[in-house]
Amino acid sequence: MDEKEIIERELFSDTSQYNDIIKRPYQQSKGHMPMMKEDRAGQFSPFAALTGFGSLIQKKAEIYAHKKYLSADEERTIFNKLQLAVRSKQPVTINYFNDTVGYYEEFHDQVSKIKPERGRVFFNDHSSVVIANIKQVRE
Predict the structure, then answer these.
(1) What's the total number of domains in the chain?
(2) Are 86 and 65 in contact (CB under 8 A)?
(3) In which order are the strands placed within the sheet that holds 120-123?
(4) Hey, CA dihedral for 125, 126, 127, 128, is it positive or negative?
(5) pLDDT confidence bin for 80, thresholds 50/70/90
(6) Disulfide check for 128: which of 17, 77, 119, 120 has CB 3.0–4.6 Å away?
(7) In the 3-class helix/strand/coil scheme, how is 36-51 assigned residue by residue?
(8) Whole-angstrom Cα distance, residue 47 to residue 137?
(9) What CATH number is associated with residue 99?
């Protein structure tokens, strides 16, 4: 037994200070109805509010199962192509992972600006796209 366990036993196993109330009978509240047994466990479950959260994470994981992740060199190449597209003002074809539907899509548009601090690239006619979701940039 390590030192931490010894200290915990000394602090938390001595219930002598509660001897005066431990043996007392339960007093039913006169102002409140008793809680149903089925509902009692909920008050001790700190994450009860997150019960549906697991299924949401599972759904997102299923969507992202189709995504192909690029290497750092490939990401740098894509970023450089996007910067070149901003300067040249020429439309490019973007192949990107649409995380709403879970599949790759493609569109042809002019890059208006890149915001690396937000991780997004903006286009004239299409909404912005997460840079990390872009798989290919073609002229």
Answers:
(1) 1
(2) no
(3) 111-115, 120-123, 129-130
(4) negative
(5) very high
(6) 120
(7) CHHHHHHHHCCCHHHC
(8) 43
(9) 2.30.30.100
Structural domain includes residue 134: yes
Q: What is the mean pLDDT of residues 79-102?
A: 93
The span from the first CA to the last CA of the chain, in angstroms, equals 68
Identify whether 94 is part of a domain. Answer: yes
Determine the structural domain holding residue 123 and report its residue range.
Answer: 72-138
Give the C-alpha distances (Å, rounded to integers) separating 77 from 89, 118, 137, 138: 18, 18, 9, 12
27, part of any domain = no
Min mean pLDDT across 18-27, 33-42, 129-138 is at 33-42
What does the mean pLDDT of the chain come to? 86
Does residue 119 belong to any structural domain of this protein? Answer: yes
Residue with tokens 């040249």: 88
H/E stretch holding 20: helix 19-22
Question: Is residue 94 over pLDDT 90?
Answer: yes
* Confidence (pLDDT) at 49: 65
